[in-house]
Amino acid sequence: ATLLDMRMQIPILYLVQALLGQANNAQDFEARSLGRSSSPDVECGLWTRNTVLVGPGTVATITSQLVKIRKCTVLFKPAGKCTEIKMACSNFNVPKGGDRWFSLNPPGRRFTNGNRPRNWKSTTDLRLLYKGKQCNPLKCRVSCTQS
């Protein structure tokens, strides 16, 4: 190898390292933007952002006991061979009013006691948002219905 050949290899090496670094950064950004992947059981805190993978046989639960929640966002993603997920709430008490908010796929449909989500199904990701003042206890389950 001549000196000229080695000079050409060094810039190419830097270019390859830069491209690989950008690919890794893109993957890291995607992982951070989804929130941390968590166990199937999520407890809403003052500020919560989690991602839950729902595969065949998985039953994910989201619960809340706090009176004040700034923002609880949980992204449920079908995983593995799961093609459809379903959400149902066994403990749901969200009276109408500006101080409380429960929605699926925000800024999508907002739910209150008069129109609580019953067996809400999705073939794609399902994003749940719960927030407000004077919140009541909440318990919802998400499971895979088709695989």
Identify the strand order in the major beta sheet.
1-3-5-9-7
Average pLDDT metric: 81
Helix content: 10-25%
Radius of gyration: 22 Å
Spans of at least 5 consecutive residues with low confidence:
23-34
Strand-residue fraction?
35-45%
Sheet bearing the most strands, described?
Answer: 5 strands, mixed
How many β-strands, per DSSP?
Answer: 10
Order of helical and strand elements: HEEEEEEEEEE
Q: What is the SS-derived class?
A: alpha/beta
Distance between the termini: 57 Å
Judging from the principal axes of the Cα atoms, what is the shape? globular
Number of helices: 1
Structure write-up:
About 20% of the residues lie in helices and about 40% in strands. By secondary structure, it is α/β, with parallel strands linked by helices. The longest helix is centred in the N-terminal third of the chain and has 31 residues, at about 5-35.
List keywords for this structure.
five-stranded mixed beta sheet; 41% strand; alpha/beta; 147 residues
Outline of the structure:
The chain has one helix spanning 3-33, and strands at 36-37, 41-43, 47-54, 59-64, 69-78, 84-91, 100-104, 120-122, 126-132, 138-146.
